[in-house]
Specification:
four-stranded parallel beta sheet, 14 helices
Amino acid sequence: MKKIYFAMLIFFGSLFLSSHLQAKTAIIIANFGTTQPEAVNSINNITSRVKSAFPDATVRVVFTSNIIRSIWEKRSKDPKPWTDKGISREILFTKNLLATFGDLKSQGFKEVIVQPTHLFHMEQYHDLMQYVNAIRSIKTIRDKWKPFHKIALGRPALGTVGDVFPYQDDLRAAVKTLADDVALAGEKDAALVYMGHGNELWSTGIYVELQQLMRETYPDVLTFVGSVEGYPGLENIINRLDHHTPKIENILLKPLMIVAGDHARNDMAGDEEGSWKTELKKAGYTVEPILKGLGSNNLFADLFVTHIKDAARISGIDL
């Protein structure tokens, strides 16, 4: 009799645990990624703050860049040198989005929120959205066999197209998180210059709008926003600096990127010809680069926490 009773306890206990697991939500933090160990701190900070905000959810980290992910895959063959540098296994063995969805399906999760850490609706976010929509579109004869009941996609830091969450509101929220950058530039009597990545496929006019909003919000410090690819570029920035009155002498140079990775260390702060630091110095300015990604700014990182809450709410996902 005791054996039967014990077996029933195990049976019903397993049912409870199974249903409890299936009721839980998974959050996938989708980063472009970085190969620089020092830059991983920004990603870790965002991940940590998301985990703290949603302690009942399972949080997974993915890199959307195939090139970056392949580099970490090679490094994972000999993990010790990287773990000795403080790289977590979560980063070292990161998977792509589809593999992560597959893992979550195998583990019984039914509700998933994908939160990108991209800046705006450009190439990387567009492709991520297509992956998510493809998984959403899977139809089965019986709904209970669908791989997931609900899949939500959060918006990038500076927003996306559409009128559900106007991107202008996201811009204003982001600008508020940059007050410390402005204060530091003010202490150094410097103009604040941000280098974004940009791209040549989509308009980067969002940078111009961000620049204007920064100037309106913080009129005591002159802010410039440019991009490695697309408009406005470094030449545009230098031209505007040269024609500004009163004359600008000092520049605080920061990446408008989640991580201070290869672009920040080479294209922005490198000593080689063509880097923003080198070209600005050649133009006669005193330049101080700050190698710190936006993800290391707690207030900026918390924008993604807010976007996760918004995505969950409109998708009917209980966090």
